[in-house]
Design brief:
By secondary structure, this protein is α+β, with helices and mostly antiparallel strands. It contains 7 helices and 11 strands. The strands form 2 sheets. It has a 5-stranded mixed barrel with strand order 2-3-4-6-5. It has a 5-stranded antiparallel sheet with strand order 7-8-9-10-11.
Length: about 250
Amino acid sequence: MLRGFVAAVGALAAGLAIGWLIGSRLSRYPRASNAVTVQIAALRSNPSIYAGKVVRVAGKLDQCYAWECSLCPESMTSANADQRQCLALDFHNLMPGTGFGEEEQEKIFRFASVTLTARFDPSCWKGPCLDRPTVLYGAVVESVQHRRTSREGLWLGGAVTPLEEAAQPETAALRAEALKAGFPDNPPMKVFNVHADPATRVVCWTSFMDSWPNSLEGAVDAQSTMDFYSCNEFKNVGGSWVPQVQGT
């Protein structure tokens, strides 16, 4: 129990420390004083007016995972998500020319309501881009107004894969396999079925608050800093449940 609690608190502390480090360095980024304050809707409706300018804009970040990371209106939810009302972005890297720090900032700020500055370039709206249609380049988060769990967060670009709690006796069998794989033995643990995938289960534990995922993506791919759980996929291979190595 103690080891599990220490691990959970340690992970939270590490995330907060990284966030502070990034914030303290980016707060001194000089271009913020030249930023034009503007609304998302104005950038969408009059892109030529702001093209090439550094803008300050507020909104809600989506899941910021893989090819997707966008700033969207505060009123948008996963139920009415519309990429055409959002601004795809990439984060300012901490070491110019390396990309270092961009993915770390995605992890720290995903699902949050933020105010940020970035260089606005709508070129990807005029022709296809190779990956995400980025229009906000080198984004720097100036402030965070609100953070959300992955359950509450905005998911853009497609439906997530629902999870539902598994029934006994399967839960007992998966718990035993999870303990063999190194899960702590005392913190609360739950086993989840993955929608439309009978050969996969997700096993999660938490030592801090009653925090559980409701989607496969929120469990293993795009956790929020407000998600105080650790999850792992298990695959049924020849009648045995085998833990899968998760990415970071």
